[in-house]
Design a protein that fits this description.
Mean pLDDT: 96
Helix content: 10-25%
Oligomer: single chain
CATH class: Alpha Beta
Structural class: alpha+beta
Low-confidence stretches: none
CATH superfamily: Hotdog Thioesterase
Number of domains: 1
Largest sheet: 6 strands, antiparallel
Number of helices: 3
Strand content: 35-45%
Order of helices and strands: EHHEEEEEH
Length: 140
Amino acid sequence: MAEPFSVRVTVRGYETDTQGHLNQAVYLNYAEHARWSLLEAAGISQARLLGRRVGPVALETTIRYRRELLAGDEVDVTCEFEWSGGKSFRIRQEVRRTDGTLAAEVTAVAGLLDLEERRLIADPREVFKELATDLGLFGL
């Protein structure tokens, strides 16, 4: 199996809380950054999504915090799509220090919203297949 898509992020001091560790909300920012980076790497920009009149929507997000992160830590944030065949799909992500220590696991359920109908697209895989230049990044 191929390695999951990954982006590297350095924890910035202003992202930490009074205990000195990464603020819990920032993990969501890192996960979102990795998801948009994957879309861009696959050839899907926000402009292309808007041109197709669709947009990704988060339906549920779960974060499991494993180890603290401190200012200056470098982390790799992975992103893997899982398809069930329905209107939604799952995105699994890990936040790992460069030494391999698992800091957090993020699991999201998402879909693609038809921006005119304001309803989820019946089969989001088909839209990704239509728009992407690298389907392998989506596991398709």
